[in-house]
């Protein structure tokens, strides 16, 4: 009963077993997927049996209850998480641990050696009084010792909570104090790459807030170096002392708590999310064996710290018989992780989009520079992968599957991920996780029969849909709850209040027609910076000690050039008489980095007069986020002080305050030291930090390792000298960089510009259509427009004078930029050409050439030029070239909002194409014929005095403005042309209802400029612009444009 076309894999083997057990044959993967979600009890029962985990008790009861919020899996089953991970041949390799700078310090363990260490530490924990259910905490580096700790804690039934050593004391206390841990494990020895307050000092401060601690266990040879009320033990002595006292792995209930993971702290203290051992284990085992085909002989390396859920996810890979590799040290070069992969024969490498983006920017070619022949799979998580990153991996690494996996700390697993046989499409995760009914709300009713008789429509044939990511059925890795919460209120509000009965995750996703999934970003207020969730409440807690600051708000600004696509912006309201000078900005950044973590350090700090408040006095992060991103506030009407948004937008638009080095005012004096001035300006620009001093620690001010490496590459290009990464991290200051520049020889050949050839601009030709469509599909990946649709823009859909379809920016024949022009002769507007600027995209490496493309395109003085979808970045360029605003607003008109116009008598509406065409004059007939192939609704409305010809386009997009709060694509009708606006105004409701019924939409969108007094409706901002020597704004319509050809 193997699935048709599936290559040999554990998933195929399991599908055979499942098919036999349920007496059903799965002809394709989507049938198996649907069955696993609908009949999840049969799926999980069969998987547990097939997995062959050591266990005891009764597994007949798979799940009690059908509600995702309260269901309980395997209530009568017992197992031991550590035993399940450590079973296997004693001599099999299980762990490789790499330490410090370089690849030399490596420790390797077999399963037998790891079992012995875990058993000895478990026995020691029992001697220290640790019992099942007790909490143990760790402030630990990503090393072999932490693996032993995690498994020993699980062996005795203790609940483990991990924190990373880069966290400040405030962040550590916020997470660990509520748990009242009995034992604290900690690394105490300093390392060269540590920043800020010594780790041992932070541990001492933490212990002062943990009166429950009975013992501290050092994971290295370090000491607390301070008076202490509890004994200090060292792990190696505990593990080596005496004979093993461990005779059997005690089996604990399936839902016995295993770990506490922490939320981001968005609305207060971080939530302590309690996960069970059995649910975590079988979810991970399913993801590893079925979706990743992980098995004995594989070696997995995931780029993670032990404070992230992916550390737990990688640890569970031991249950599949695989070996894991951990790395403790800095990212000393962009190639480091590829070197680790090659040196240790890694078969499955886990990373994140920010790292892949950095490798691409550095010009790395890992597949050519390293031996990656054993690498078979790359996994990426933390933030959405951009389509071009799939192409880079295929070209620069090797042609292998790149699986974008996404889930979260909340579920300690994945909702969407990979598949051993399904094709990988750029920008998509191939499938949802088996057994989980993942959906995008709103979702049409599934066309399947619960008895198992599916309709003809399969997952591949469904239309793409966007919505809120939910899980509609019970799943084993749902948290047990929040630690310490007795009534479940916060747990319910966090995951089940928004959509009762189903898990709501807080992500916006798109389910594609191929069955894949694209994660579009967060839908709640949690920030995601550099792929890491950031809780604003943690930032606010640290800033409370600043007397200069009255209020603060942290929001995310969209920034394509940033890893992860966003930067953290901190808005501060200062107390009277205070100002945001460079010294205060440095103190803020330093405090957030030292007492919190590097991802809490803002990219921009802005002083504002006030923060937006709702009518009830609550702060509105959503309104502030819209303001810093140049969007109209979605909840402006609900604000008590909407006037503050304009000042926020103005502040963010002013840009970072960098000094004018031409006046000799640099920190070293531009006239006295031109190199220092150039270097300072470059650092301020790359790091987006204003007024840097020569001795400012760039790491403390928020420049993480990826930013510093970006700076390093920029300095090498600017000055033509190679620099030492180790020296840079040792002295991360402008003075340190200057010392390197003045003490090293010129770079060896190879430090070259980003492309061998100079950029060149030329017209689009027919031969360019395929690569051009692919470039636009990748560049505008979030639009959901595929290559086939982009091709419509670069052909002659309408008669014109044979001019160019657009202009290309090329480097060595590779297309790196495009500005498309949709050309036509408008029968209603005379003989001069109409040119619509349709698609303006330039690869980030060549953004400076965008204006050159625009100048090349605007060569015809007598043409009417339009731009209906300009980005905020292109508005200034268009204005500089004499474009004028065409629309100040559009209006969304819902049904029955203009019922008073129904009283107007004598209206007749015709929609039949032959009838409509017969009622038009010759010029209008030409318009009708030109637009008939493009799915436009063309209609004629007549009353006793006038006739109106209307052309409309159905769209299914997120509406701009206030309606964007709806987490769905809304179907609406857009009016492209109306020959008689006065008639439309007289009979607005009747015509509107006819359009909505015909196109099955929820509202009509019209341009406000059609009437001197626009009708009632929700005003939506519009940035459309035009330039014409012949036509005024009133004569410019939206026919013969990209709005006809594309679903924009």
Automatic annotation (TrEMBL):
Biological source species: Roseicella frigidaeris
Listed EC numbers: 6.2.1.16
PANTHER family xref list: ACETOACETYL-COA SYNTHETASE
Entry similarity comment: Belongs to the ATP-dependent AMP-binding enzyme family.
Residue ranges of every copy of the Carrier domain listed in the record: 670-745
Gene3D superfamilies associated with the record: 3.30.300.30, 3.40.630.30, ACP-like (1.10.1200.10), N-terminal domain of ligase-like (3.40.50.12780)
Positions of the N-acetyltransferase domain: 759-903
Annotated protein name in UniProt: Acetoacetate--CoA ligase
GO process terms (BP): lipid metabolic process
UniProt keywords, alphabetically: ATP-binding, Ligase, Nucleotide-binding, Phosphopantetheine, Phosphoprotein
